[in-house]
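Quick start: what a row looks like.
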Amino acid sequence: MSQDRNLNTDYWEKRYQDNTSVWDLGEASPPIKAYIDNLADKNIRILIPGCGNSYEAEYLLENGFTDITVIDIAPAPLAKLQHNHGHNTHIKIVLGDFFEHRGEYDLILEQTFFCALNPALRPDYWDKMLSLLSAKGKLVGLLFDREFDNEGPPFGGTKAAYEELFKDHFELLKFEKCYNSFSKRQDTELFMVLKKKHVVI
């Protein structure tokens, strides 16, 4: 797999066509569902990067959220979303590169996008998240708290390594072992709620 983030479309399209994205749960992740269930404002601007089959987006729609954007570089999963929800004005379906995306969001949901990126791109990931989040915006979701035996993706990591990446730019509201993971991911996930740090000039 190329380390160039702009050359991954064919790779991911093939995985979706062949149904070999092994981390696809077939449903919205329980920890993210629980977080969504506690959101009072249904009109916040939400982004799901590397959305894939985007069960979380469907869950948001089912629960009345009105401003959802999903983005992926693979056409196949987005075609399914377009077929099922293309008529719905509450969701914007974007085929494109997350690192080229422009916008401002109050909430960005992380669900197996980070682990799909070559680890060399992790500093770029955090920088891009900072640029897309509103002043009070939050990055919420899950990271794998384990290393993988096989060459990724998925790519794993440790809590300490992740904290080192974001500590200078994000306020750590929550970053802990996930207690309500999907059954096959028990004890392998960290749940995070991160907020941009205010820059004092």
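That is the whole record. The radius of gyration is 16 Å. Strands lie at 46-49, 68-72, 91-95, 105-111, 133-144, 170-177, 189-196.
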